[in-house]
Amino acid sequence: MKSPTAFEEALAQLNDGHQEGDFNGHRWGATVHRSKDGRRVWLFAEELGGREIVSFNLYRTNDSGSVLKTCEMSSEKVVEFVLHFRPDA
C-alpha cells in the first residue's frame, strides 16, 4: 500500500483514544493509538454487548509503504470495519 487508500483515508479520520459508534447496525467501542512518529497505528474495537472484535496494527515502512498486521482475523474484516464504522458525533 504505497499510495493512500480508502482504508488509510478512513483510518486517518478516526480520532486517537476511545470512541463509540455504529458498525453494521450495532454499537461498537473502538480505541485508536498512533505512535509519536506516525509509523504505527493500533486499533482495537469490540461490539458492545456482543462477541465480535476487530484488532490490527498498521505499520508504515520506508521500503514497502504500509503493512497491515491483523490480530487473528482476515484483513477483509478489518478493512470493512474501518471503512464503515461511524463514530458518534
Quick gist of this model?
The protein has 89 residues and is α+β, with helices and mostly antiparallel strands.
Mind telling me the C-alpha Rg?
Answer: 13 Å
| Cα shape | globular
Q: Main beta sheet: strand number and arrangement?
A: 6 strands, antiparallel
**Count of helical segments?**
2
Approximately how much beta-strand content do the residues carry? over 45%
Helix-strand pattern: HEEEEEHE
Give the end-to-end Cα distance, rounded to a whole number of Å. Answer: 30 Å
Low-pLDDT parts are none
The helix/strand class is: alpha+beta
The percentage helix is 10-25%
* Strand line-up in the sheet with most strands: 5-4-3-2-1-6
**How many distinct beta strands?**
6
Average pLDDT, to the nearest integer? 93
How would you sum up this structure, described in words?
This protein is α+β, with helices and mostly antiparallel strands. It has helices spanning 6-12, 75-84; strands at residues 17-23, 26-34, 40-47, 53-61, 65-70, 86-87. A six-stranded antiparallel beta sheet has the order 5-4-3-2-1-6, with helices on one face. The N and C termini lie far apart (30 Å).
Q: How do the strands and helices of this protein lay out in sequence?
A:
Layout: H1 6-12, E1 17-23, E2 26-34, E3 40-47, E4 53-61, E5 65-70, H2 75-84, E6 86-87
Antiparallel strand pairs: 1-2, 1-6, 2-3, 3-4, 4-5
Which short descriptors sum up this protein?
single chain, 89 residues, alpha+beta, six-stranded antiparallel β-sheet, 2 helices, 6 strands, globular
